[in-house]
Specification:
Length: 484
């Protein structure tokens, strides 16, 4: 962040572009790593996705709108499914890929996930209700959350989910009590905090010690959790260990340390209790490209590197003679959670420009503020995480020179910023359409009705046809919960 003890306006480089944003040779160029698979420009310069241009989408469905490329979504899901299967086949017979419902979930998307053979991770009774409505196979659902209610646990067990990831001592007892009452044996995994400092934003790093998730390896807390689960043999079925080191991660070094520590506990359980747990979840949270500075690994690269990590670490444990007792330590079935990496790049948000304003910011510099008909109510990540985004003029071709701009929303907050820094054509004006890529993950999920603004629709496009999969909220929706 640009900071100075006398205030941001005095900070070095204030008013100029960030170091990673070069002057564009073509301000209309689309960087392939930022956009969904089928996005292109037609002859008039209009952005087109799935064979449908954005002017048509805006006319039929309005703006702001989330636009998801269904073919891109499905292709990314298949890539994680297939590119992880090959390297893990020889290690543990394959891998299970869990789509992150928290990134974005609706009944249509749950259907796509099921059809492409992935599993589904849900974190609340509401997300589980969506999965149930879509008829998602229960055995391929994992239930997360650090404070599941009794009602949510009962909902999960009655539906028959394949795993409940327990996160606290209270929750272990809570799940055991509900399972006993229902007369079932609950499949559980233990969330382990492995003490790995992921290189990401503080609020999305989830495996260091000072945060709310899981049982710490330090002080034997995770080992104690194993003992507590095993104390309920008729109510709880210990399936394995779970770890997640964070989100928006661009290399596998953290997973190597995490896997080593998780495998150590896995071996300890086998040695101490004679239990060969059949599953292990290494998490994921793989990064995506929001701007030209980001260079994420491909699913193939991730699969090969993580498969080698698991093979190498289990081999090291076997050579040390740890964990098996009389029986050789078996490699459990591995699960991974790509996080935003499937839905994030598949979607862009389409806005209409309302005003363009030149603002004097000092030192002879100006900034163009481009206001659009959305903002922090549909994308709070910039305000929440200092997230960077890119954007492009989407409704026409322009030969105008590039101009450094900031895309801002319509809300009554000075921090209502969507794109901090981007080059747009100098002739950008009211009525133009702007598209912001990489908004499939967490934008709709974290959206709000701030300033009583109805949330945008989600429009899926494929093979020349567009359809609404989540409708736009209306003023009537806003008023429906308001009790006079």
């Amino acid at each position: 962040m640009r900071a100075h003890e006398a205030g941001a306006l005095h900070a070095e480089g204030y008013g100029g572009p960030p170091h990673w944003l070069p002057w564009p040779s073509d301000v209309m160029e689309l960087l392939p790593q930022l956009w969904p698979l089928t996005v292109r420009r037609d002859g008039s310069g209009r952005l087109e996705v799935g064979g449908v241009d954005v002017v048509t989408i805006a006319r039929e469905y309005g703006t702001a709108a989330y636009v998801v490329d269904e073919e891109d979504f499905r292709a990314r899901a298949r890539a994680f499914r297939d590119d992880f299967a090959a390297p893990f086949e020889a290690v543990c017979g394959g891998v299970d890929v869990y789509y992150a419902g928290k990134a974005f979930l609706c009944t249509a998307v749950a259907g796509w996930v099921a059809e492409e053979g992935l599993s589904l991770d849900v974190c609340s009774g509401g997300e589980l209700a969506v999965a149930e409505r879509a008829g998602f196979p229960a055995e391929r659902i994992g239930m997360h959350g650090n404070n599941k209610s009794v009602a949510e646990i009962q909902q999960a067990l009655e539906y028959g989910v394949g795993r409940i990831v327990v996160d606290s001592v209270e929750e272990i007892e809570r799940v055991a009590a509900v399972a006993t009452e229902l007369g079932v044996r609950a499949p559980v995994m233990i969330r382990v905090t492995v003490g790995v400092e992921a290189h990401t934003h503080e609020f999305i790093a989830t495996a260091h010690e000072d945060q709310k998730f899981g049982f710490s390896l330090a002080g034997g807390k995770a080992a104690d959790a194993v003992e507590r689960v095993l104390a309920h043999p008729h109510a709880l079925d210990l399936r394995g260990l779970h770890s997640h080191i964070g989100s928006q991660i661009f290399d596998t070094s953290g997973f190597e340390v995490s896997a080593r520590r998780l495998i150590g506990l896995h071996a300890q359980v086998a040695e101490r209790h004679g239990l060969q747990m059949p599953e292990m979840d290494l998490g994921g949270g793989f990064g995506i490209a929001y701007t030209s500075e980001h260079t994420p690994l491909s699913p193939k690269e991730l699969g090969e590197q993580m498969g080698e990590v698991v093979r190498r670490e289990f081999t090291a444990v076997a050579r040390a003679g740890v964990g098996g007792g009389e029986a050789e330590l078996q490699v459990p079935r591995i699960s991974i959670e790509p996080g935003r990496a499937i839905v994030g790049p598949s979607t862009f948000t389409l806005y209409e420009v309302g005003t363009v304003k030149d603002v004097e910011i000092g030192h002879g510099a100006k900034r163009a503020y481009v206001s659009v008909d959305g903002g922090m109510s549909d994308n709070v990540r910039t305000a929440l995480y200092d997230a960077d985004y890119s954007c492009t003029l989407a409704s026409r071709r322009s030969e105008a020179a590039p101009r450094l701009a900031r895309v801002v929303g319509r809300h009554c907050e000075s921090g209502d910023i969507i794109v901090m820094d981007e080059y747009l054509p100098d002739d950008i004006s009211a009525g133009d359409l702007i598209a912001v890529p990489g908004t499939g993950a967490y934008c709709r999920s974290l959206s709000s009705q701030y300033n009583h603004t109805p949330r945008p629709p989600v429009v899926a496009v494929r093979d020349g046809a567009a359809r609404v999969i989540v409708r736009r909220e209306t003023i009537d929706d806003l008023l429906a919960l308001d009790v006079p």
